[in-house]
Amino acid sequence: MKTISNFSLKKINSFNVESIAPIAYFPSCIDDLITLSTLGLSSFYILGEGFNTLLVENESPIIIKPEFKGIEIDEQADCTIVKAAASENWHEFVGFCIERGINGLENLALIPGSVGAAPVQNIGAYGVELAQYCQEVLWFDFETQSVIQYQHKDCGFAYRESIFKKKVKE
Length: 170
Known about the structure:
Layout: E1 2-8, E2 20-26, H1 30-37, E3 44-46, E4 62-64, E5 71-75, E6 80-84, H2 90-99, H3 118-121, E7 124-125, E8 128-129, E9 136-141, E10 146-151
Parallel strand pairs: 2-4, 3-4
Antiparallel strand pairs: 1-2, 5-6, 7-8, 9-10
């Protein structure tokens, strides 16, 4: 796992505000997350694409910036299942689906952020919400050091809402 001390966050937040993280971790696999969970970090911030993140202090908390990449397609008889890793850029993911004739997410193009942030906010636009297409979410629980699989019915999707925004985060 890549680790950088005194990491400048200026170029990875949409407001381009300078803030220095005392340390930034860049996990790219579940083993990296397990390692992080054993460090006893008392306070940290998980940073996706850095949109709508305003870092106002000169020194930020410890940053965890996941680098989980990959998109898998599973063609089935009656549907296509697409799995995308949390660090994929959301707009590029929508473009990927459109290019392959996988329809439904078109109205969600140009929404800034990452795939991993999309279910937290239950992103939506022009009458379409992620909840209409999201079958499951894999969530890493730092306390139990395990991946939890949430089925659609367990995600608590509502208008700009999900369990990932509050309940799971607490």
